[in-house]
Each structure stands twice: as C-alpha cells, then as structure tokens.
C-alpha cells in the first residue's frame, strides 16, 4: 500500500486546485487517500478524499472500490450534511474526489482529552449497524482507531474506510487480537470492540487490554473490566454504558441496535431522580400496609440489621434528599435482558429463588405494575430457603395501579422497613401473589447476574412453588435492591 502520492501526482481538478492551497497528505485508507488543505476563500482547514486508483482493492475490483467510495460519501451526507462541501465534488477521468470539513482518524489525534465519548459511541454504533443490517457489507465490521473519524468543527464521529471490513480475517491464534471481530457465543462483537476502543482512548494500552479480554470466566472478566472502568475520568453514565458494552456474556451484553436508546436512557437518569435511588424508596400509605412486616430472626441480637430511616415525604425529590442524608447506598440487580407485556396475574404464585456471592442486606424487591386500568392487589413475601412454606422473613401487601407515579420503567419498588441480612450462599425466595389482570413481565432472564456495585454475583434458581410461570428466563420479580 503506498504512503500517499506526491503533490505533483494528485488527480485534483483545476477547480479544486484553484480553491485550496497548502495541500498535504495525512492518511492512507484502504482505497482512498486523505489530504488536508486550506480553503482559499475562508482560510479554514478541510479534508480532501481521493479514490486511490493504485490501491489493491481498486486494481482487483475498480467498480467495488468506486461504489464503496461513493456510498461512504452518501452516508456522510445523509447523517452529517453540513460536513460535506457538495459543490466541490469532482469526477475527473477515473479519479473521484470530495471535500469535507476537516476530519481525521482518531489514531492521528495527538491527544484524546477533547474526544466526546458519548458522541463517538453513538456515531460509530449507528454506522456499524448500518453496514451490518442495511448495507450487509460483511458478517463483521472492523472498528479501529484508524477508521473512526472525528469531524473537528462539530465534534461528530463516523466510521469510514469501509473496505477494512472486507479483508479476510485469519482464525484467532492463542494470542488475543483486539481487531478480530467474530460474533458468536464465545467471541466478541462490534459493541465489545467499540468498548475496548473507548478504554484505549482513555489511556489503557492494548498490551493491558488483551490479557483482560482473554479472561474466560464471566464473573472474573466483568469484575476486572469494572475495576478498570471505575478508574476512568468519565461521567457515571458513560461508565455504566461501558460496563454493559464490555459484559463478557454475549447474551446479556448491550446489543448494537440498542446503543443509542441506552445512551438516551442514561442521560435521562442523570438529569432526573433515578429509579434506583428514589423511585424504589418511596413508600405510599395508599399502597402499602406496614403492619404486616415480619422482622427477620437475624435482625435481633448480635445481628441487628441497620434500619433505613424514612421520613414522610411529599415528592420523590425530597425522598432522594432523605436518602442522601442517611448516606445509604442502594444497589440493584435486574435479572432480565428486556421487558415485555404479556403476563396474567390470577391469584397464582410467581416466585424466584436466589443466592449471592457475598453477604448483603436485602432492602426490597421490584415488581411490575398492571398493563391495564385493572388494579393488581396481593402479597409480596421473602422466605428463607426454597420452600415457600419456610421461614418468613418479610411480607408486604400491595395495591398496584397502571399510572403509579412511584413506578419507574413499569417497575414498582417494594421496600422493607428493616433490612434483611442475607449470608453468602444462603437460598432466599421471593414470591408475588397478585390478582387480577394483565401485567408487564421480563424476558431474556439470566441465571447469573452481577449487581450494580460490580462485586456481588447473584445466582437465580427456579422455585418449585412458582405456579404462575415465573422462572429464571421470564416472568415477574425483575429486581432486587440491596446494600453491602
């Protein structure tokens, strides 16, 4: 592959030559050259992309090379129309060239501090999804710092040099290769690779990323990744996003087409009271009867549980301040990949059993609200062991409505007056017996899930007393709230 044609060999039309000066070569892509030049009229720096007729791809398949070159241009015009100087597009014999606002690969940036990580993730994920699902360019898409481009003036990002994804990838050797993108049950995918590139942009070298990515045990891998992410100088929403992108388990890892939605959700959580910190903590006398609370036997004597102090509040915001004052950090584990709306509550029991890898204090559980105007009323219980007739640790009667202001994402937090001490490895069952009407439900349930704190691993088991269909893979009781 050549390193850039000499200026005297540039296939620039007389028009472009008259409009731009100080032309210099900056990058060699798979099938085009990128030059920087100053616009004579504005003195602003621009990028000029020229189809490389000397490239291997062009020599092997000139039609494909030219098609991809034009398709990249059309994609750029469709998503970032202001970035392309359309009037300076030129076809001169076999040569094709177009001008954009200054845009260079991230690998050519001298420092990465000015990179907008959120926009970069959003832009690259959208382009990768387009190449996979719309253009069907290849079975996997190459994502490297060499083909992630930054538009300096607007701080937008796009995936270029599409022909990289057409190169045949060799089978993985014992040495892990970050650029090997082969989706599968034991492999990484585009979302995972994009997450690794974010870590790379934050100063984590490939030499350190490779052994971490080779860890096969899901819990160990995720714990290592989460530790690295926590040390990054990035906003909390970005850290949460990266943890979902770099989940070792492909069945629970964030999907490419959900990236933009997840970014939007995290931004909303940042500017409003989050469901984990407040929505779950609001106690409404209209819906709960506290006199049915049964203290845990472990909450007496030397194992007295710490009590979360609640004040009578009028709003979620005030409840948040109360929690902040008590300095009680609430963690959450959600056992489902996504939500559906096809469950019927008819007085039968929905139950799930779990155990955790560390000692925790169980603070509450999340249950789904009705899908219609029919109220759902019944009892939520916490039982020690798998037998639902076993030792009762807590019991709450609830009445749920379709438009409960306390519910977040269709989940209402049933919180207990006193924390329930749960020892590592102890089996705990949660049951919900509600009637009567349709409800939301979770699908894509996971047997093993890491809690929000990145330290406690929850293992979920089917409860033999669950008569309404809830099990590990789908059903009710989506969330558990705890502290360590």
Molecular structure report:
The N and C termini lie far apart (56 Å). This protein has helices at residues 14-19, 56-60, 62-79, 117-134, 190-201, 206-213, 218-230, 236-245, 259-271, 316-326, and strands at 20-28, 32-39, 45-51, 84-92, 95-101, 103-105, 148-151, 156-159, 331-334, 338-356, 360-368, 376-384, 392-400, 411-422, 428-443, 448-450, 457-462, 479-483. It folds into three domains: 7-101, Phosphorylase Kinase, domain 1 (2-Layer Sandwich), CATH 3.30.200; 104-271, Orthogonal Bundle (Transferase(Phosphotransferase), domain 1); 279-483, Jelly Rolls (Sandwich). The radius of gyration is 28 Å and the shape is elongated. The chain contains ten helices and 18 strands. The model is unreliable at 1-8, 168-186 and 272-327 (pLDDT under 50). It is an alpha+beta fold. Helix 4 packs antiparallel against helix 5 (190-201) and helix 8 (236-245) runs antiparallel to helix 9.
Keywords:
six-stranded antiparallel sheet; Jelly Rolls; alpha+beta; 484 residues; elongated; 18 strands; 3 domains; 10 helices; five-stranded antiparallel sheet; Phosphorylase Kinase, domain 1; 24% helix; Transferase(Phosphotransferase), domain 1
Draw up the topology in text.
Elements: H1 14-19, E1 20-28, E2 32-39, E3 45-51, H2 56-60, H3 62-79, E4 84-92, E5 95-101, E6 103-105, H4 117-134, E7 148-151, E8 156-159, H5 190-201, H6 206-213, H7 218-230, H8 236-245, H9 259-271, H10 316-326, E9 331-334, E10 338-356, E11 360-368, E12 376-384, E13 392-400, E14 411-422, E15 428-443, E16 448-450, E17 457-462, E18 479-483
Antiparallel strand pairs: 1-2, 2-3, 3-5, 4-5, 6-7, 7-8, 9-18, 10-15, 10-17, 11-14, 11-18, 12-13, 12-15, 16-17
